[in-house]
Amino acid sequence: MTKLASFGRPLRAAVIGASGGIGGAFVQHLCGLEGVDVVYAFSRRAAPKTGNCVAASLDYDDEDSIAAAASLAKEDGPLDLVLVASGLLHEGPGLQPEKSFRSLDAGNLARSFHVNAIGPALAAKHFLPILARDRKAVFAALSARVGSIGDNRLGGWYGYRAAKAALNMTIRCLAIEVARNRKEMICVGLHPGTVDSQLSKPFQGGVAEDKLFAPETAAGHLLEVVDGLAAGDSGKVFAWDGKEIPF
Question: What is the pTM of this model?
């Protein structure tokens, strides 16, 4: 397990989407690290406080709840790390990855953009101002390799691909803006690989056994990537193995 040695101590972190597979694993990893002061675990259904983990509600459908979550997190000082672990690929029989343009549906596209791009953008709006200004601080959001335009060879999955591409552009814009006066802040996208979670469950058939990661393994990989980030990496998207993914 990475110790996040590149960050100062005491370390204060927040995980948005903490009830998901990777989000929950992020919380577990962070709460077990020496020198971590507090981990804010945000999700639509907050769990009770345990140890140095403070669980609270945050709902992308309600921007006021995002603002309230940020307000809670800043009460005892700035954050060092914000991890946005939310994502949506399918949602019941009505919302599935499109195999053809004939399957495009306005409501499904809007829903995918809302969870995969708009929600993380609003999280950045409220959480970037409460990140530390005098030391390394990271805002990282789960992206996906399929959101890369340059890497797209198969097509399909229109809504998910387009929403993750929009997220990548948002990350690039955030990085450019914050670099003007906050030189040590880093904004990145993270691709976890294929993780054994509800999001990927229906699509694991062709995945090699050694490339299907448990959530705990995926979270560990990504935290190692985060630990190795420097200011020059801001605005980029990195895979679980630390390799940069082209936009």
Answer: 0.93
